[in-house]
Amino acid sequence: MKLRLLFILALTSLFAFPANAQFGKLGKLADKAEGVLRGDSPLSNEEVGQALKEALDQGVGQAVTSLSAENGYYGSPYKILLPEEAQAIVSRVSALPGFGNIEQDLTERINRAAELAAKKATPIFVDAIKGLTFRDAMNLLMGEKDAATRYLETSTSTALTGEFQPVIRAALDEVNANEIWNRVVTAYNKIPLVKKTEPELDVYVTSRALDGMFGLIEVKETELREKPALRNTELLRKVFARQDAK
Questions:
Q1: Average confidence (pLDDT) over 217-235
Q2: Are the C-beta atoms of residues 217 and 128 closer than 8 Å to each other?
Q3: pTM, entire model
């Protein structure tokens, strides 16, 4: 049974890597798969898949909870700053009456928008995690320390952007950031000899918000891989012990 599984893993991996790297990757994957399967308590396909889903659920859950809290973005290393073009606009407009604190005010509001939107992210991630196959799980378990994060990023970024951006746009409206930004742009465009502009604030905030989300998920994944004490279920301890031994 083990040999048959190794043969299947070897065959399917031909489609998982670029042609010029297939044979080197194939040998490494077979060695790693053999290491996962041998031992007094061999791991089943279901255990490997379920453990990776638990790990992703744990990392995603912690990231979403952290970033969706008040000051989750604004008070963290993932704070979203104004785009460069907006900073130039704000710099000019801040000298006008009523716009003295506009940069701080607008920065706080776009982060509040990201915090509100982050609350909507969980179902999107859950759907992606549910779609994790055994081959995916094996590659992630024995891959680099950010392999699971990169899997989520690759498999969900397009869908997340499509789902996240309307939420960001609505959140920007909810915290009046769009209204303030429109006032800023209107005032800026009245300044003589400046190039008229109207950057899409919701597109920018969506991109930075997702960067921060994946950045924190990567931190959580790395911690889980490197700190056995954080593996809070028997299944996680059992499966990731194989990763530790690779």
A1: 88
A2: no
A3: 0.70
